[in-house]
Amino acid sequence: MTETYYPQGVCSRAMNIELENGIVKKVSVVGGCNGNLQGICRLVEGKKAEEVIALLRGIRCGGKPTSCPDQLARALEKALAHAKEEKA
User: What's the pLDDT score for residue 43?
Assistant: First the structure.
């Protein structure tokens, strides 16, 4: 399942996420800090979405109440919820 998430409150403009059985298969981010986000995407690929959410949720960027990693966690939460709805 592939899903696009549009983050809010950060520099990145879109996050494309591919999940398979709760595992992050591929992530790509449009906009934002390119090098950092490429690194984050590579680090999370192959991991359980719930594990990634636990690691990234709540990270802040400067004085902002969110960050690209936090937005990725939120995107994964939505993707997991959609996957559960599709199975029901």
Answer: 97
